[in-house]
Amino acid sequence: MKPLVSKGQRPVNLDIGSMKLPITAYVSIAHRLSGVFLFFASGLLIWALDLSLSSEQSFNDLALVMANPVAKGLMWTVATALSYHALSGIKHIVMDFGYGETMQGGVMGARIVIVLALVAAGLWGVVVW
Fold first, then answer.
1. pLDDT tens, position by position, 65-116
2. Parent domain of 51
3. Is position 13 within any domain?
4. What percent of the chain stands above pLDDT 90?
5. Are 50 and 93 in contact (CB under 8 A)?
6. What is the CATH number of the domain that holds 76?
7. Quick one: pLDDT at residue 8?
8. How many domains in the chain?
9. Which of these, 20, 21, 46, 111, has the minimum number of CB atoms within 10 Å of its CB?
10. Which candidate, 77, 82, 65, 94, places its Cα nearest to that of 31?
11. Domain membership flag for residue 123
12. pLDDT of 7 over the 80 cut
């Protein structure tokens, strides 16, 4: 029996580092990475919530820890990742309703997500510091 062979030219170079990805791909990859980061950060957030609700002394101890610039930086990172992930998720929901499904619409949506995420990051910086 003759093996099946695909018709047409196959790509010669599959080195992902040499490929030029569109902005939509970067936004999608960042959405997935922010989700993984938030999954692991949720354990830290639940621990902090539990500690803050345990007693008045543990709340005061947590408030002292949160005054540290490293802890503030971590909280800013978590809040920024949460904002980005939510904005990108909203973009996906809008696309599920049939808006922005073209390449031009996807690029426009990706740019909007990036701009709004940068604005949110700035606002979170003001809130945290």
1. 999 999 999 999 999 999 999 999 999 999 999 998 999 999 999 999 999 9
2. 23-128
3. no
4. 81
5. no
6. 1.20.1300.10
7. 67
8. 1
9. 20
10. 82
11. yes
12. no
Give the DSSP letter string of the chain.
Answer: -PPP---SPPPS---GGGS---HHHHHHHHHHHHHHHHHHHHHHHHHHHHHHHH-HHHHHHHHHHHTSHHHHHHHHHHHHHHHHHHHHHHHHHHHHTTSS-SHHHHHHHHHHHHHHHHHHHHHHHHHH-
Sign of CA dihedral 30, 71, 76, 73: negative
Tell me, yes or no, whether 8 lies in a domain. Answer: no
**pTM, rounded to two decimals:** 0.82
Q: Which token pair is 55?
A: 């007693």
Q: Which two tokens stand for residue 102?
A: 């073209």
Q: In this structure, what are the phi and psi dihedrals at residue 10, rounded to the nearest 5 degrees?
A: -90, 150
- Per-residue pLDDT at 5: 60
- Do residues 107 and 22 lie in contact, with contact meaning Cβ atoms separated by under 8 Å? yes
Computed over every residue of the chain, the mean pLDDT equals: 91
